[in-house]
Amino acid sequence: MCSLRSLPSVGVLLLLAWMPSPVQAQQAMPVILPMRERAEVQDRWLQIRLDTVVPRLMRREGIDLWIISAREYNEDPVIETMLPATWLSARRRTILVFYDRGPDEGVERLAIARYAVGEAFPASWVPEEQPDQWARLAEVIAERDPRRIAVNRSETFALADGMTDTEFDGFLKALPARYHDRIVSGENLAVGWLETRIPEEMQVYPTIVRIARRIIAEGFSEQVIQPGVTTTEDVQWWYRDRIRELGLVTWFHPSGPYSGPKPGGDPTTSPPGPVRRASCRATCCTWTSASPTWASTPTRRSTRTSSRPARATPLTACGVRWPWATACRTS
Fold first, then answer.
1. What is the four-CA torsion angle of 255, 261, 263, 264, rounded to 10 degrees?
2. pLDDT reported for residue 186
3. Overall pTM > 0.85
4. Are 254 and 38 spatial neighbours (Cβ–Cβ below 8 Å)?
5. Using CA of residue 43, residue 168, residue 132, residue 62, what is the dihedral sign?
6. Fewer Cβ atoms within 10 Å of its own Cβ: the N or the C terminal residue of the chain?
7. Which residues lie below 8 Å from residue 1, measured CB to CB, with a gap of 6+?
Protein backbone atom coordinates (compact mmCIF):
# COMPACT_ATOMS: atom_id res chain seq x y z
CA MET A 1 0.00 0.00 0.00
CA CYS A 2 1.43 3.32 -1.06
CA SER A 3 1.58 6.30 1.31
CA LEU A 4 2.54 9.92 0.77
CA ARG A 5 5.00 10.12 3.62
CA SER A 6 8.46 11.47 2.94
CA LEU A 7 10.90 8.78 1.86
CA PRO A 8 13.58 8.09 4.50
CA SER A 9 17.06 6.91 3.71
CA VAL A 10 17.80 3.20 3.10
CA GLY A 11 19.67 3.05 6.41
CA VAL A 12 16.64 4.25 8.36
CA LEU A 13 14.43 1.77 6.55
CA LEU A 14 16.74 -1.07 7.57
CA LEU A 15 16.78 0.19 11.14
CA LEU A 16 12.99 0.16 11.28
CA ALA A 17 12.64 -3.26 9.72
CA TRP A 18 13.03 -5.15 13.02
CA MET A 19 10.25 -3.23 14.80
CA PRO A 20 7.06 -5.17 15.65
CA SER A 21 3.94 -4.31 13.71
CA PRO A 22 1.96 -1.65 15.59
CA VAL A 23 -1.37 -2.89 14.24
CA GLN A 24 -1.05 -6.59 15.09
CA ALA A 25 -3.51 -6.20 17.94
CA GLN A 26 -5.98 -4.27 15.81
CA GLN A 27 -9.08 -6.01 14.55
CA ALA A 28 -9.41 -6.54 10.82
CA MET A 29 -11.11 -3.95 8.65
CA PRO A 30 -14.86 -4.65 8.51
CA VAL A 31 -16.19 -5.92 5.19
CA ILE A 32 -17.10 -3.06 2.84
CA LEU A 33 -19.77 -3.94 0.32
CA PRO A 34 -19.10 -3.51 -3.41
CA MET A 35 -20.87 -0.58 -5.04
CA ARG A 36 -23.59 -2.74 -6.59
CA GLU A 37 -24.53 -4.32 -3.28
CA ARG A 38 -24.38 -0.94 -1.55
CA ALA A 39 -26.84 0.41 -4.12
CA GLU A 40 -29.25 -2.42 -3.30
CA VAL A 41 -29.01 -1.59 0.41
CA GLN A 42 -29.54 2.13 -0.21
CA ASP A 43 -32.60 1.56 -2.38
CA ARG A 44 -34.09 -0.85 0.16
CA TRP A 45 -33.58 1.68 2.96
CA LEU A 46 -35.02 4.46 0.80
CA GLN A 47 -38.22 2.55 0.15
CA ILE A 48 -38.70 1.87 3.86
CA ARG A 49 -38.01 5.51 4.71
CA LEU A 50 -40.46 6.80 2.11
CA ASP A 51 -43.14 4.41 3.35
CA THR A 52 -42.69 5.17 7.06
CA VAL A 53 -40.83 8.42 7.74
CA VAL A 54 -42.56 10.76 5.27
CA PRO A 55 -46.17 10.00 6.34
CA ARG A 56 -45.32 10.44 10.00
CA LEU A 57 -43.57 13.77 9.38
CA MET A 58 -46.34 15.17 7.19
CA ARG A 59 -49.00 14.33 9.78
CA ARG A 60 -46.86 15.67 12.60
CA GLU A 61 -46.50 19.00 10.80
CA GLY A 62 -50.06 19.10 9.41
CA ILE A 63 -48.88 19.19 5.78
CA ASP A 64 -51.16 17.90 3.03
CA LEU A 65 -48.81 18.25 0.07
CA TRP A 66 -45.01 18.52 -0.01
CA ILE A 67 -43.14 19.66 -3.12
CA ILE A 68 -39.41 19.09 -3.65
CA SER A 69 -37.95 20.55 -6.82
CA ALA A 70 -34.41 20.66 -8.22
CA ARG A 71 -32.55 21.04 -11.46
CA GLU A 72 -29.82 18.77 -12.73
CA TYR A 73 -26.49 19.37 -10.91
CA ASN A 74 -28.10 21.92 -8.59
CA GLU A 75 -29.88 19.51 -6.29
CA ASP A 76 -31.98 20.31 -3.29
CA PRO A 77 -30.16 18.56 -0.40
CA VAL A 78 -33.33 16.59 0.35
CA ILE A 79 -34.01 15.44 -3.20
CA GLU A 80 -30.49 14.02 -3.36
CA THR A 81 -31.45 11.65 -0.57
CA MET A 82 -34.62 10.50 -2.32
CA LEU A 83 -33.10 9.52 -5.66
CA PRO A 84 -32.35 5.90 -6.57
CA ALA A 85 -28.77 4.85 -5.91
CA THR A 86 -28.03 4.79 -9.64
CA TRP A 87 -29.19 8.39 -10.08
CA LEU A 88 -26.21 10.57 -9.22
CA SER A 89 -28.21 13.76 -9.76
CA ALA A 90 -31.63 15.06 -10.68
CA ARG A 91 -32.47 14.85 -14.38
CA ARG A 92 -33.20 18.17 -16.07
CA ARG A 93 -35.86 19.48 -13.68
CA THR A 94 -37.11 16.86 -11.24
CA ILE A 95 -40.16 17.65 -9.11
CA LEU A 96 -41.26 15.21 -6.43
CA VAL A 97 -44.73 15.48 -4.89
CA PHE A 98 -46.05 13.87 -1.72
CA TYR A 99 -49.80 14.05 -1.08
CA ASP A 100 -51.25 12.71 2.15
CA ARG A 101 -54.58 10.99 1.45
CA GLY A 102 -54.97 10.00 5.09
CA PRO A 103 -53.96 7.00 7.24
CA ASP A 104 -56.10 4.54 5.29
CA GLU A 105 -54.93 5.39 1.76
CA GLY A 106 -51.44 6.59 2.69
CA VAL A 107 -49.16 9.14 1.05
CA GLU A 108 -49.30 9.34 -2.74
CA ARG A 109 -45.94 9.90 -4.45
CA LEU A 110 -45.56 11.46 -7.90
CA ALA A 111 -42.75 12.68 -10.12
CA ILE A 112 -43.60 15.71 -12.24
CA ALA A 113 -40.79 14.74 -14.56
CA ARG A 114 -40.14 13.17 -17.94
CA TYR A 115 -39.36 9.83 -16.32
CA ALA A 116 -40.35 7.85 -13.28
CA VAL A 117 -37.88 8.38 -10.45
CA GLY A 118 -37.05 4.81 -9.61
CA GLU A 119 -39.92 2.63 -8.46
CA ALA A 120 -41.03 5.01 -5.72
CA PHE A 121 -42.17 7.97 -7.86
CA PRO A 122 -44.20 7.19 -11.00
CA ALA A 123 -44.06 9.82 -13.73
CA SER A 124 -47.06 12.15 -13.81
CA TRP A 125 -46.14 14.47 -16.66
CA VAL A 126 -46.54 13.87 -20.39
CA PRO A 127 -44.87 16.80 -22.17
CA GLU A 128 -46.78 16.08 -25.39
CA GLU A 129 -50.04 16.72 -23.54
CA GLN A 130 -48.88 19.60 -21.33
CA PRO A 131 -45.60 21.18 -22.47
CA ASP A 132 -45.22 23.34 -19.35
CA GLN A 133 -43.86 21.36 -16.40
CA TRP A 134 -44.93 23.95 -13.82
CA ALA A 135 -48.43 24.07 -15.30
CA ARG A 136 -48.64 20.30 -14.88
CA LEU A 137 -47.65 20.66 -11.22
CA ALA A 138 -50.39 23.27 -10.80
CA GLU A 139 -52.90 20.82 -12.31
CA VAL A 140 -51.83 18.10 -9.87
CA ILE A 141 -52.29 20.52 -6.97
CA ALA A 142 -55.71 21.70 -8.16
CA GLU A 143 -56.89 18.11 -8.57
CA ARG A 144 -56.04 17.38 -4.93
CA ASP A 145 -56.90 20.80 -3.41
CA PRO A 146 -54.54 20.61 -0.38
CA ARG A 147 -55.00 22.94 2.58
CA ARG A 148 -51.26 23.33 3.35
CA ILE A 149 -48.53 23.07 0.71
CA ALA A 150 -44.92 22.79 1.91
CA VAL A 151 -41.86 23.79 -0.10
CA ASN A 152 -38.22 23.66 0.98
CA ARG A 153 -37.61 27.30 1.84
CA SER A 154 -35.93 28.22 5.12
CA GLU A 155 -34.06 31.17 6.59
CA THR A 156 -32.64 29.01 9.37
CA PHE A 157 -31.56 25.64 7.97
CA ALA A 158 -29.46 25.50 4.82
CA LEU A 159 -30.44 21.90 4.16
CA ALA A 160 -34.11 22.87 4.23
CA ASP A 161 -33.64 25.77 1.80
CA GLY A 162 -33.22 23.78 -1.39
CA MET A 163 -35.83 25.42 -3.64
CA THR A 164 -34.06 28.24 -5.48
CA ASP A 165 -35.69 31.58 -6.29
CA THR A 166 -35.86 30.56 -9.94
CA GLU A 167 -37.77 27.40 -9.07
CA PHE A 168 -40.03 29.18 -6.59
CA ASP A 169 -40.87 31.97 -9.05
CA GLY A 170 -41.73 29.47 -11.79
CA PHE A 171 -43.93 27.58 -9.36
CA LEU A 172 -45.82 30.69 -8.20
CA LYS A 173 -46.44 31.94 -11.72
CA ALA A 174 -48.12 28.67 -12.68
CA LEU A 175 -50.02 28.16 -9.43
CA PRO A 176 -53.53 29.65 -9.24
CA ALA A 177 -53.61 32.64 -6.88
CA ARG A 178 -56.10 30.98 -4.51
CA TYR A 179 -53.38 28.54 -3.45
CA HIS A 180 -50.65 31.10 -2.73
CA ASP A 181 -51.62 31.67 0.89
CA ARG A 182 -51.56 27.92 1.49
CA ILE A 183 -47.81 27.69 0.89
CA VAL A 184 -45.71 27.18 4.03
CA SER A 185 -42.08 26.37 4.79
CA GLY A 186 -41.24 22.68 4.70
CA GLU A 187 -38.16 23.12 6.90
CA ASN A 188 -39.44 20.81 9.63
CA LEU A 189 -40.17 18.14 7.04
CA ALA A 190 -36.73 18.51 5.47
CA VAL A 191 -34.86 18.48 8.77
CA GLY A 192 -37.03 15.67 10.11
CA TRP A 193 -36.34 13.56 7.02
CA LEU A 194 -32.60 14.08 7.21
CA GLU A 195 -32.27 13.51 10.95
CA THR A 196 -34.42 10.39 11.23
CA ARG A 197 -32.77 6.96 11.09
CA ILE A 198 -34.74 3.78 10.63
CA PRO A 199 -33.74 0.65 12.62
CA GLU A 200 -32.12 -0.93 9.56
CA GLU A 201 -29.76 2.04 9.26
CA MET A 202 -28.93 2.07 12.95
CA GLN A 203 -27.87 -1.57 12.77
CA VAL A 204 -25.22 -0.69 10.19
CA TYR A 205 -23.92 2.56 11.65
CA PRO A 206 -21.59 0.98 14.27
CA THR A 207 -19.80 -0.80 11.41
CA ILE A 208 -19.30 2.52 9.61
CA VAL A 209 -17.73 3.92 12.78
CA ARG A 210 -15.46 0.88 13.07
CA ILE A 211 -14.29 1.38 9.49
CA ALA A 212 -13.34 4.98 10.25
CA ARG A 213 -11.51 4.00 13.43
CA ARG A 214 -9.54 1.29 11.61
CA ILE A 215 -8.48 3.85 9.02
CA ILE A 216 -7.41 6.28 11.74
CA ALA A 217 -5.47 3.56 13.57
CA GLU A 218 -3.60 2.71 10.38
CA GLY A 219 -2.76 6.36 9.90
CA PHE A 220 -1.30 6.56 13.41
CA SER A 221 0.83 3.46 12.90
CA GLU A 222 4.42 3.11 11.74
CA GLN A 223 3.08 1.76 8.47
CA VAL A 224 2.38 5.41 7.70
CA ILE A 225 4.31 7.54 10.21
CA GLN A 226 8.07 7.65 10.61
CA PRO A 227 8.76 9.96 13.56
CA GLY A 228 10.77 13.01 12.61
CA VAL A 229 10.23 12.46 8.89
CA THR A 230 6.51 12.13 8.15
CA THR A 231 4.57 15.38 8.30
CA THR A 232 0.98 15.87 9.40
CA GLU A 233 0.16 16.90 5.85
CA ASP A 234 1.58 13.60 4.60
CA VAL A 235 -0.76 11.75 6.96
CA GLN A 236 -3.77 13.80 5.91
CA TRP A 237 -3.21 12.94 2.27
CA TRP A 238 -2.57 9.30 3.19
CA TYR A 239 -6.04 9.25 4.76
CA ARG A 240 -7.56 10.65 1.56
CA ASP A 241 -5.85 7.98 -0.55
CA ARG A 242 -6.72 5.18 1.88
CA ILE A 243 -10.39 6.14 1.98
CA ARG A 244 -10.57 6.14 -1.82
CA GLU A 245 -8.66 2.85 -1.96
CA LEU A 246 -11.42 1.28 0.15
CA GLY A 247 -14.08 2.55 -2.25
CA LEU A 248 -15.35 5.23 0.15
CA VAL A 249 -15.51 9.02 0.09
CA THR A 250 -14.72 11.54 2.81
CA TRP A 251 -16.90 14.26 4.25
CA PHE A 252 -14.04 16.77 4.34
CA HIS A 253 -10.27 16.82 4.15
CA PRO A 254 -8.92 14.83 7.14
CA SER A 255 -7.30 16.78 9.95
CA GLY A 256 -4.52 15.81 12.33
CA PRO A 257 -3.38 18.71 14.53
CA TYR A 258 -1.21 18.32 17.62
CA SER A 259 -2.77 18.35 21.03
CA GLY A 260 0.54 17.91 22.84
CA PRO A 261 3.68 20.06 22.98
CA LYS A 262 5.35 20.70 19.63
CA PRO A 263 9.06 19.98 19.23
CA GLY A 264 11.55 22.39 17.81
CA GLY A 265 12.14 22.47 14.09
CA ASP A 266 9.44 21.75 11.55
CA PRO A 267 6.14 22.16 13.45
CA THR A 268 4.37 19.82 11.04
CA THR A 269 6.73 16.85 11.51
CA SER A 270 5.43 14.06 13.74
CA PRO A 271 7.65 13.40 16.80
CA PRO A 272 7.31 10.20 18.83
CA GLY A 273 5.23 10.20 21.96
CA PRO A 274 3.02 13.29 22.46
CA VAL A 275 -0.70 12.66 22.33
CA ARG A 276 -2.41 14.09 19.27
CA ARG A 277 -5.78 14.07 17.58
CA ALA A 278 -7.00 13.11 14.13
CA SER A 279 -10.45 13.44 12.65
CA CYS A 280 -11.42 11.33 9.66
CA ARG A 281 -14.98 10.88 8.41
CA ALA A 282 -15.61 8.03 6.00
CA THR A 283 -18.83 7.62 4.07
CA CYS A 284 -20.47 4.31 3.20
CA CYS A 285 -24.06 3.34 2.35
CA THR A 286 -25.28 6.94 2.80
CA TRP A 287 -23.70 7.27 6.26
CA THR A 288 -20.71 9.22 7.50
CA SER A 289 -18.85 8.43 10.71
CA ALA A 290 -17.49 11.22 12.88
CA SER A 291 -14.59 9.66 14.77
CA PRO A 292 -12.14 12.08 16.38
CA THR A 293 -9.30 9.98 17.80
CA TRP A 294 -6.43 10.62 20.17
CA ALA A 295 -3.19 8.64 19.95
CA SER A 296 0.56 8.61 20.39
CA THR A 297 2.84 8.73 17.39
CA PRO A 298 4.55 5.33 17.10
CA THR A 299 7.72 4.65 19.03
CA ARG A 300 9.84 1.49 19.01
CA ARG A 301 7.60 -0.36 21.45
CA SER A 302 4.08 0.85 21.16
CA THR A 303 1.33 2.58 19.32
CA ARG A 304 -1.67 3.55 21.38
CA THR A 305 -4.95 4.76 20.07
CA SER A 306 -8.19 5.64 21.76
CA SER A 307 -11.46 6.95 20.45
CA ARG A 308 -14.03 9.07 22.14
CA PRO A 309 -17.61 8.08 21.31
CA ALA A 310 -18.36 8.94 17.72
CA ARG A 311 -21.06 11.47 16.99
CA ALA A 312 -23.89 9.80 15.13
CA THR A 313 -23.66 11.93 12.03
CA PRO A 314 -25.97 10.75 9.25
CA LEU A 315 -25.35 11.05 5.57
CA THR A 316 -28.28 10.74 3.32
CA ALA A 317 -28.10 9.28 -0.14
CA CYS A 318 -25.60 10.61 -2.66
CA GLY A 319 -23.43 12.30 -0.05
CA VAL A 320 -25.62 14.86 1.61
CA ARG A 321 -23.80 15.89 4.78
CA TRP A 322 -25.27 17.08 8.01
CA PRO A 323 -22.14 18.03 9.93
CA TRP A 324 -23.84 19.86 12.77
CA ALA A 325 -25.94 16.88 13.87
CA THR A 326 -24.85 15.60 17.26
CA ALA A 327 -27.44 12.86 17.49
CA CYS A 328 -29.79 10.83 15.34
CA ARG A 329 -33.51 10.57 15.85
CA THR A 330 -34.58 6.97 15.38
CA SER A 331 -37.94 6.03 13.95
1. 110
2. 96
3. no
4. no
5. positive
6. N
7. 223, 242, 245
